[in-house]
Amino acid sequence: MKNNKTLDHFKARIFTGSRTTGEPETDFSGNGEQWQDYRTIKLPGFDGSQTLNLDDFWLEVFTHQGSKVTAQLTGLETISKYSNTQQLKELFTIVASLTYIREDE
Q1: Residue 83: beta bridge partners?
Q2: CA–CA dist 79, 68 (Å, integer)
Q3: Which of 88, 53, 89 is nearest to 71 (CA)?
Q4: What pLDDT, in 10s, does the model give residues 11-40?
Q5: Taking the domains of the chain in order of start, what are their residue ranges?
Q6: If you write DSSP's letter for every residue of 19-75 in order, what string do you get?
Q7: What's the first-to-final CA gap in the chain, in angstroms?
Q8: What is the pLDDT of residues 39-52, one digit of tens each?
């Protein structure tokens, strides 16, 4: 008999830098397959918006199936001014609480 766990509920908060407490930049939560709605997050940036790719975070969640996951993210923003293009990077930390449903096979 094999034990599999399926994601039941998740709640995540994203902080600037390496902080893991205090007021988050954003937060989100959901159930089951709703995690797919949060593969990328857009946050206000220097001159527009910056994008955070959460694919590596979700890979960690599904690989290790921990109840609490903390990971580093990089926010990317592309700025174009006077024919000069530059990409800005900013460090973020995601802290997530997760619950699973055990499925017996």
Answers
A1: none
A2: 35
A3: 53
A4: 999 999 999 999 999 999 999 999 999 999
A5: 3-104
A6: --SSS-SEEEEEEGGGGGGGSEEEEE-SSSEEEEE-HHHHHHHHHH--SEEEEEEEE
A7: 6
A8: 999 998 877 789 99
